[in-house]
């Protein structure tokens, strides 16, 4: 290991899980660690798929986002393998960090921090990772397979670091939010977001069901429908448009929008309904009541804003679980939410 860097440098958090949802789960922990620093802010080191640059664009707790370059979509990354650890160490050293928190049990990020000469190295301390850390506490090896959110929460508790936010909370630019919401101010209320995207085929409810749901919601009095997804969900549009009739003002699609643009209006939704995907986590973290369709995956429990809808037998199944969630069941959940809101 080279000489340690100066003790007056920056503070970093390494959160290497790749998804947007993974980053949203860690919002309370990132905010807590930032508040525990004299400067009140940290650098977040993560993977590009997390969209952390857009999630934290207006968050004062995050001073900068630095990308990990790991293998993605079959393409190798600069930080893969043994040479990749050395390259990552060189990157970390160039940033002059005085302290790093590794919110993962992998040894490679702790090793890179050690090679970079970062004076204070915190982490979960499982397996080989412990060799490269020099600050406690460590979590027991038995927790290795626990949910990432539970690991981060347990570590903060063991470290005696207060966690003011018990649920994820996005911090957005109020001016950008006001501007985005003003752009749709003439659209009929109430507003509902339909989360059409899915990271895996078995999480997808399908265009036909979403079109039928849109028709039922329209009949029930919902005003404007915001379709959340990416380019892969564009084929959903004709069926949903047909289900809503000929009024284009009741439909807003975001398939070509950047995530930052979507976040600016997402918090104005009256309800979110959609697949177990990143937008479900983002809606909940924006304070929007969210009904998640968990036909194929275990329901998320990190946010009280999320209502989990499972197949009739209550058992998620990748084979046909999503197909066993009916439009009628979703409408019952929507009606229950509306009754609760009005009560």
What would your notes on this structure say?
Helix 5 (107-115) links the parallel strand 4 and strand 5. 34% of the residues lie in helices and 15% in strands. The protein has helices at residues 20-25, 27-35, 52-55, 81-95, 107-115, 148-159, 174-183, 207-219, 237-244, 259-266, 278-285, 327-342; strands spanning 10-14, 42-46, 62-67, 97-102, 120-123, 191-195, 224-228, 251-253, 271-275, 290-293, 306-309. By secondary structure, it is an alpha/beta fold. It contains 12 helices and 11 strands. Helix 4 (81-95) crosses helix 5 (107-115) and helix 8 (207-219) runs parallel beside helix 12 (327-342). The strands form 2 sheets. It has a 6-stranded parallel beta sheet, sandwiched between helices. A 5-stranded parallel beta sheet has the order 3-2-1-4-5, with helices on both faces. The model is unreliable at 1-6 (pLDDT under 50). It is elongated and about 65 Å long. The protein folds into 2 domains: 10-159, 3-Layer(aba) Sandwich (Rossmann fold); 175-342, Rossmann fold.
Task: Please state the CA-atom Rg, rounded to the nearest Å.
Answer: 22 Å
Structural class: alpha/beta
Report the helical percentage. Answer: 25-40%
Report the mean per-residue pLDDT as an integer: 94
What is the second-level CATH architecture of the largest domain?
A: 3-Layer(aba) Sandwich
InterPro entries: Glyco_trans_9, LPS_LOS_Heptosyltrfase
Protein name: Glycosyl transferase family protein
Pfam family, one: Glyco_transf_9
GO molecular function: ADP-heptose-lipopolysaccharide heptosyltransferase activity
